[in-house]
Fold:
Amino acid sequence: MPLVASEDRLKLLQELQAKAASCQRCELHLTRKQAVFGVGNPNAPVVFVGEGPGAEEDRIGEPFVGDSGKLFDKMLYSVGYSREDIYIANVVKCRPPGNRNPLPEEIALCQNFLIDQLQTIRPKVIFCLGKFALLCLLGYDGAVGKARSKSFTWRTIPVIASFHPAYYLRTPIKKSSGWQDLLKLQKLLKTLE
Ligand code: URA
Structure:
C-alpha cells in the first residue's frame, strides 16, 4: 500500500471499518454482536495493538472499554496521553467466545485489517499490548517479559513490546513494567519529533 496522505486516512479507515463490519471470513462472525475495528486519531504518533474484543467491547463496539481498558486509560493519562491522541486496534476484530485466545487461523484471516490500519496511519511507534500483537506483527512467540528488552521494527516502524493490561489486573505488582514501557514510548516519541 502506498503512503496515505494525512487528510485521506480517516476516509480509508472508515472504508476498512465497513469491510470488517460485514466480514465473514472466520467463524467469529457467527457469535459477534459487532466487529470492533479500532478507535482514535488517524494521524496518531502511536498505535496500540491489543488482542481482541471482550464482552464489553463486543457490546459497545470500541476496543478496551472493559476492565482492562479502564486500567489502560488510567495508565495512558498518567503519562499525559488520552484516547484522542492515539489509535487503538486489536489483532482480531471480533470477540472470541468466552474470551478464549484467538486461534491461529482467526489471526491469519484477520491480520490484513490490522496491517491496513497500520499502513494507513504509519505511526511513529507501534506499542504491542501482549503476546498476540507480538505474534501477529513480528512472528515473535517468546515470553513478553523477554521481548520487553528487545528492539523490534515492523516495516521500519519501531515496536515496543509490553504486557497486556489484563495481566496487571491479575498481577498488580507488574504494573510498574507498564509504566516503564509507557515512559520508554514517551522518550522514543520525543527523539522522533
Ligand atoms: N483486550 C484486548 O486485547 N482488546 C480489547 O479491545 C479489550 C480487551
Q: What stands out?
A: The chain has one domain: 8-186. The first strand starts at residue 38 and ends at 40. Residues 50-54, 57, 63-64, 66, 68-69, 90 surround uracil (CB under 6 Å). The two ends are 24 Å apart (CA to CA).
